[in-house]
UniProtKB/TrEMBL annotation, chain B:
It is an enzyme of class 7 (translocase). One of its GO terms (cellular component) is plasma membrane. NDH-1 is composed of 14 different subunits. Subunits NuoA, H, J, K, L, M, N constitute the membrane sector of the complex. GO terms for biological process: ATP synthesis coupled electron transport. The chain crosses the membrane at residues 6-22, 34-52, 58-83. One of its GO terms (molecular function) is quinone binding. Its EC number is 7.1.1.-. This is NADH-quinone oxidoreductase subunit K.
Amino acid sequence: MSLAFSEMSSVVLETPLPDLSVLRGVAVTALGVVAVVTGALVFKVDSMARATYLLAASFVAVGAAVVALHLDYVGVVVVLMMLMEMAVMGVFMVMLMGMNPALMPMSMVHSKRRALVAAGASFVVLAVGILLVDWPQRSSVPPEGPAGSTEGGATTYSLGDALMGDHMLVMMVVSPVMLATIVAGVVLAQAQGRYARLGDDLRGTTQGGRR
Amino acid sequence: MTLEVVLVVAAALFSVGLYGALSQQVVVMVMMGLELMLNGVVLAAAGFWWFTAPEPSLQVLLVVVLAAMTVEMAMGFAVALLLHRTSGADMTDMAAELKQ
Protein backbone atom coordinates (compact mmCIF):
# COMPACT_ATOMS: atom_id res chain seq x y z
CA MET A 1 0.00 0.00 0.00
CA SER A 2 2.83 2.41 0.84
CA LEU A 3 4.33 1.78 -2.58
CA ALA A 4 1.03 2.67 -4.16
CA PHE A 5 0.95 5.99 -2.29
CA SER A 6 4.43 7.08 -3.24
CA GLU A 7 3.71 6.22 -6.84
CA MET A 8 0.41 8.01 -6.73
CA SER A 9 1.81 11.17 -5.17
CA SER A 10 4.09 11.75 -8.11
CA VAL A 11 1.39 11.39 -10.75
CA VAL A 12 1.23 14.52 -12.87
CA LEU A 13 -2.26 15.35 -14.00
CA GLU A 14 -3.03 15.97 -17.61
CA THR A 15 -6.16 17.89 -16.72
CA PRO A 16 -6.71 19.73 -13.43
CA LEU A 17 -8.91 18.01 -10.89
CA PRO A 18 -12.35 19.41 -10.19
CA ASP A 19 -12.29 22.11 -7.55
CA LEU A 20 -13.57 21.80 -4.00
CA SER A 21 -17.31 21.21 -3.87
CA VAL A 22 -19.31 24.44 -3.65
CA LEU A 23 -20.41 23.60 -0.13
CA ARG A 24 -16.87 23.04 1.05
CA GLY A 25 -15.65 26.17 -0.74
CA VAL A 26 -18.28 28.31 0.96
CA ALA A 27 -17.54 26.63 4.30
CA VAL A 28 -13.78 27.29 4.02
CA THR A 29 -14.36 30.95 3.13
CA ALA A 30 -16.98 31.52 5.83
CA LEU A 31 -14.89 29.79 8.49
CA GLY A 32 -11.85 31.81 7.42
CA VAL A 33 -13.80 35.05 7.81
CA VAL A 34 -15.05 33.90 11.23
CA ALA A 35 -11.44 33.14 12.22
CA VAL A 36 -10.28 36.62 11.15
CA VAL A 37 -13.17 38.42 12.90
CA THR A 38 -12.81 36.50 16.16
CA GLY A 39 -9.04 36.93 15.93
CA ALA A 40 -9.41 40.69 15.57
CA LEU A 41 -11.88 40.83 18.47
CA VAL A 42 -9.25 39.19 20.70
CA PHE A 43 -7.45 42.54 20.82
CA LYS A 44 -10.64 44.55 21.05
CA VAL A 45 -12.61 43.07 23.94
CA ASP A 46 -12.28 44.29 27.48
CA SER A 47 -11.58 41.13 29.36
CA MET A 48 -8.88 38.54 29.12
CA ALA A 49 -11.29 35.64 29.56
CA ARG A 50 -13.27 36.80 26.55
CA ALA A 51 -10.06 37.30 24.61
CA THR A 52 -9.08 33.70 25.38
CA TYR A 53 -12.45 32.32 24.29
CA LEU A 54 -12.36 34.39 21.10
CA LEU A 55 -8.89 33.10 20.26
CA ALA A 56 -10.12 29.56 20.88
CA ALA A 57 -13.05 30.27 18.53
CA SER A 58 -10.61 31.53 15.91
CA PHE A 59 -8.58 28.33 16.15
CA VAL A 60 -11.70 26.15 16.02
CA ALA A 61 -12.79 27.98 12.86
CA VAL A 62 -9.38 27.42 11.23
CA GLY A 63 -9.41 23.77 12.35
CA ALA A 64 -12.84 23.30 10.78
CA ALA A 65 -11.68 25.02 7.58
CA VAL A 66 -8.70 22.66 7.45
CA VAL A 67 -11.08 19.69 7.85
CA ALA A 68 -13.19 21.11 5.01
CA LEU A 69 -10.02 21.07 2.89
CA HIS A 70 -9.95 17.27 3.39
CA LEU A 71 -7.18 17.39 6.00
CA ASP A 72 -9.21 15.68 8.70
CA TYR A 73 -6.40 14.66 11.02
CA VAL A 74 -4.56 17.98 11.04
CA GLY A 75 -7.81 19.92 11.49
CA VAL A 76 -8.95 17.84 14.44
CA VAL A 77 -5.48 18.12 16.02
CA VAL A 78 -5.59 21.93 15.62
CA VAL A 79 -8.97 22.08 17.38
CA LEU A 80 -8.05 19.73 20.23
CA MET A 81 -4.60 21.20 20.79
CA MET A 82 -5.72 24.79 20.73
CA LEU A 83 -8.70 24.27 23.04
CA MET A 84 -6.36 22.77 25.64
CA GLU A 85 -3.83 25.51 25.03
CA MET A 86 -6.42 28.20 25.58
CA ALA A 87 -7.48 26.53 28.83
CA VAL A 88 -3.85 26.63 29.98
CA MET A 89 -3.63 30.24 28.81
CA GLY A 90 -6.61 31.15 30.99
CA VAL A 91 -4.86 29.68 34.03
CA PHE A 92 -1.71 31.66 33.24
CA MET A 93 -3.71 34.85 32.91
CA VAL A 94 -5.21 34.46 36.35
CA MET A 95 -1.77 33.55 37.71
CA LEU A 96 0.23 36.36 36.11
CA MET A 97 -2.30 39.15 36.02
CA GLY A 98 -3.45 38.73 39.59
CA MET A 99 -6.99 39.85 38.89
CA ASN A 100 -10.36 38.51 37.97
CA PRO A 101 -9.80 38.20 34.27
CA ALA A 102 -13.46 37.99 33.38
CA LEU A 103 -14.48 41.28 34.94
CA MET A 104 -11.53 43.62 34.67
CA PRO A 105 -11.76 46.05 31.76
CA MET A 106 -8.40 46.57 30.20
CA SER A 107 -6.59 48.26 27.38
CA MET A 108 -2.92 47.57 27.61
CA VAL A 109 -1.32 48.59 24.35
CA HIS A 110 1.74 50.50 23.25
CA SER A 111 2.69 51.92 19.85
CA LYS A 112 -0.83 51.24 18.68
CA ARG A 113 -0.61 53.42 15.60
CA ARG A 114 2.70 51.95 14.46
CA ALA A 115 1.43 48.43 15.07
CA LEU A 116 -1.69 49.14 13.02
CA VAL A 117 0.40 50.56 10.18
CA ALA A 118 2.77 47.57 10.25
CA ALA A 119 -0.12 45.09 10.28
CA GLY A 120 -1.98 46.92 7.51
CA ALA A 121 1.17 47.18 5.40
CA SER A 122 1.95 43.48 5.84
CA PHE A 123 -1.59 42.58 4.77
CA VAL A 124 -1.43 44.80 1.70
CA VAL A 125 1.98 43.42 0.66
CA LEU A 126 0.85 39.82 1.18
CA ALA A 127 -2.49 40.33 -0.57
CA VAL A 128 -0.90 42.06 -3.57
CA GLY A 129 1.66 39.27 -3.82
CA ILE A 130 -1.06 36.62 -3.56
CA LEU A 131 -3.15 38.20 -6.29
CA LEU A 132 -0.26 38.90 -8.63
CA VAL A 133 1.48 35.55 -8.50
CA ASP A 134 0.49 33.06 -11.16
CA TRP A 135 -0.10 30.05 -8.93
CA PRO A 136 0.68 26.62 -10.37
CA GLN A 137 -1.98 24.14 -11.34
CA ARG A 138 -2.47 21.17 -9.11
CA SER A 139 0.24 18.66 -9.90
CA SER A 140 -0.92 15.49 -8.18
CA VAL A 141 -4.02 13.68 -7.09
CA PRO A 142 -5.19 13.35 -3.49
CA PRO A 143 -4.11 9.98 -2.10
CA GLU A 144 -6.48 7.05 -2.01
CA GLY A 145 -6.80 5.25 1.27
CA PRO A 146 -7.72 1.65 1.98
CA ALA A 147 -10.86 0.42 0.29
CA GLY A 148 -13.96 2.11 1.63
CA SER A 149 -12.21 5.04 3.30
CA THR A 150 -13.41 8.61 2.87
CA GLU A 151 -11.25 11.34 1.31
CA GLY A 152 -10.36 12.71 4.73
CA GLY A 153 -9.58 9.19 5.95
CA ALA A 154 -7.32 8.65 2.96
CA THR A 155 -5.28 11.79 3.71
CA THR A 156 -4.94 10.71 7.33
CA TYR A 157 -3.74 7.30 6.19
CA SER A 158 -1.25 8.84 3.78
CA LEU A 159 0.09 11.19 6.48
CA GLY A 160 0.74 8.27 8.81
CA ASP A 161 2.29 6.38 5.94
CA ALA A 162 4.59 9.34 5.17
CA LEU A 163 5.60 9.94 8.80
CA MET A 164 6.46 6.29 9.30
CA GLY A 165 8.07 6.00 5.86
CA ASP A 166 9.66 8.60 3.62
CA HIS A 167 9.39 11.44 6.13
CA MET A 168 10.41 9.63 9.28
CA LEU A 169 13.27 12.10 9.76
CA VAL A 170 10.66 14.75 10.58
CA MET A 171 9.31 12.61 13.42
CA MET A 172 12.81 11.85 14.59
CA VAL A 173 13.65 15.56 14.74
CA VAL A 174 10.35 16.73 16.24
CA SER A 175 10.46 14.14 19.05
CA PRO A 176 13.76 15.27 20.67
CA VAL A 177 12.71 18.90 20.17
CA MET A 178 9.56 18.16 22.19
CA LEU A 179 11.61 16.42 24.88
CA ALA A 180 14.03 19.36 24.99
CA THR A 181 11.03 21.69 25.31
CA ILE A 182 9.74 19.77 28.33
CA VAL A 183 13.15 19.85 30.02
CA ALA A 184 13.76 23.53 29.17
CA GLY A 185 10.28 24.48 30.34
CA VAL A 186 10.83 22.83 33.72
CA VAL A 187 14.31 24.35 34.08
CA LEU A 188 13.07 27.85 33.29
CA ALA A 189 9.91 27.67 35.35
CA GLN A 190 11.12 26.04 38.55
CA ALA A 191 11.44 28.36 41.48
CA GLN A 192 14.86 27.31 42.70
CA GLY A 193 17.21 24.79 41.18
CA ARG A 194 19.81 22.74 43.05
CA TYR A 195 22.57 25.06 41.85
CA ALA A 196 20.83 28.00 43.51
CA ARG A 197 20.40 26.02 46.74
CA LEU A 198 23.76 24.29 46.97
CA GLY A 199 26.17 26.45 45.01
CA ASP A 200 28.13 25.72 41.90
CA ASP A 201 29.75 22.54 43.25
CA LEU A 202 26.43 21.21 44.57
CA ARG A 203 27.98 20.70 48.04
CA GLY A 204 26.42 23.66 49.76
CA THR A 205 29.86 25.09 50.63
CA THR A 206 30.55 27.74 48.00
CA GLN A 207 28.71 30.90 47.24
CA GLY A 208 25.14 30.64 46.24
CA GLY A 209 23.44 28.92 49.11
CA ARG A 210 19.80 29.34 49.93
CA ARG A 211 18.50 32.64 48.71
CA MET B 1 -13.22 28.80 -4.81
CA THR B 2 -9.58 29.41 -5.47
CA LEU B 3 -6.28 29.29 -3.71
CA GLU B 4 -6.14 33.08 -3.66
CA VAL B 5 -9.23 33.35 -1.43
CA VAL B 6 -7.73 31.02 1.18
CA LEU B 7 -4.37 32.78 1.04
CA VAL B 8 -5.90 36.27 1.41
CA VAL B 9 -7.87 35.10 4.46
CA ALA B 10 -4.70 33.54 5.85
CA ALA B 11 -2.81 36.81 5.21
CA ALA B 12 -5.54 38.69 7.11
CA LEU B 13 -5.15 36.31 10.05
CA PHE B 14 -1.38 36.78 9.96
CA SER B 15 -1.70 40.56 9.91
CA VAL B 16 -4.18 40.63 12.79
CA GLY B 17 -1.74 38.48 14.76
CA LEU B 18 1.11 40.82 13.83
CA TYR B 19 -0.87 43.78 15.16
CA GLY B 20 -1.44 41.93 18.43
CA ALA B 21 2.17 40.85 18.80
CA LEU B 22 3.43 44.40 18.21
CA SER B 23 0.86 46.39 20.15
CA GLN B 24 0.02 44.38 23.25
CA GLN B 25 1.79 45.03 26.52
CA VAL B 26 0.75 41.92 28.41
CA VAL B 27 3.08 39.00 27.70
CA VAL B 28 0.21 36.53 27.40
CA MET B 29 -1.55 38.77 24.87
CA VAL B 30 1.66 39.07 22.84
CA MET B 31 1.73 35.30 22.67
CA MET B 32 -1.88 35.29 21.53
CA GLY B 33 -0.77 37.49 18.63
CA LEU B 34 2.02 35.08 17.74
CA GLU B 35 -0.45 32.19 17.87
CA LEU B 36 -2.78 34.01 15.49
CA MET B 37 0.10 34.50 13.04
CA LEU B 38 0.83 30.78 13.12
CA ASN B 39 -2.91 30.17 12.73
CA GLY B 40 -2.70 31.99 9.41
CA VAL B 41 0.30 29.87 8.41
CA VAL B 42 -1.69 26.67 9.13
CA LEU B 43 -4.60 27.85 6.97
CA ALA B 44 -2.29 28.92 4.14
CA ALA B 45 -0.43 25.59 4.22
CA ALA B 46 -3.72 23.67 4.17
CA GLY B 47 -4.83 25.74 1.16
CA PHE B 48 -1.55 25.07 -0.63
CA TRP B 49 -1.95 21.39 0.10
CA TRP B 50 -5.36 21.11 -1.51
CA PHE B 51 -4.94 23.50 -4.41
CA THR B 52 -1.40 22.74 -5.56
CA ALA B 53 -0.15 19.35 -4.45
CA PRO B 54 -2.42 17.12 -2.35
CA GLU B 55 0.29 14.71 -1.38
CA PRO B 56 1.69 13.70 2.02
CA SER B 57 4.77 15.98 2.06
CA LEU B 58 2.82 19.19 2.65
CA GLN B 59 0.79 17.51 5.38
CA VAL B 60 4.07 16.73 7.12
CA LEU B 61 4.92 20.44 6.91
CA LEU B 62 1.65 21.18 8.71
CA VAL B 63 2.60 18.76 11.47
CA VAL B 64 5.91 20.64 11.84
CA VAL B 65 4.05 23.96 12.11
CA LEU B 66 1.85 22.49 14.86
CA ALA B 67 4.95 21.29 16.69
CA ALA B 68 6.44 24.79 16.39
CA MET B 69 3.26 26.25 17.89
CA THR B 70 3.52 23.89 20.84
CA VAL B 71 7.17 24.73 21.46
CA GLU B 72 6.45 28.46 21.18
CA MET B 73 3.69 28.29 23.77
CA ALA B 74 5.63 26.13 26.23
CA MET B 75 8.81 28.21 26.03
CA GLY B 76 6.88 31.48 26.05
CA PHE B 77 5.03 30.61 29.24
CA ALA B 78 8.21 29.34 30.87
CA VAL B 79 10.02 32.61 30.11
CA ALA B 80 6.95 34.61 31.22
CA LEU B 81 6.96 32.74 34.53
CA LEU B 82 10.68 33.32 34.99
CA LEU B 83 10.29 37.03 34.28
CA HIS B 84 7.39 37.26 36.67
CA ARG B 85 9.32 35.54 39.41
CA THR B 86 12.56 37.47 39.04
CA SER B 87 11.18 40.95 38.46
CA GLY B 88 7.44 40.75 38.99
CA ALA B 89 6.96 41.69 35.36
CA ASP B 90 3.82 40.69 33.51
CA MET B 91 4.07 43.38 30.84
CA THR B 92 6.64 43.67 28.10
CA ASP B 93 7.50 47.25 29.06
CA MET B 94 8.49 46.04 32.53
CA ALA B 95 11.12 43.82 30.95
CA ALA B 96 12.69 46.61 28.92
CA GLU B 97 16.16 45.73 30.18
CA LEU B 98 16.08 42.72 27.88
CA LYS B 99 16.75 45.00 24.94
CA GLN B 100 19.88 46.53 26.46
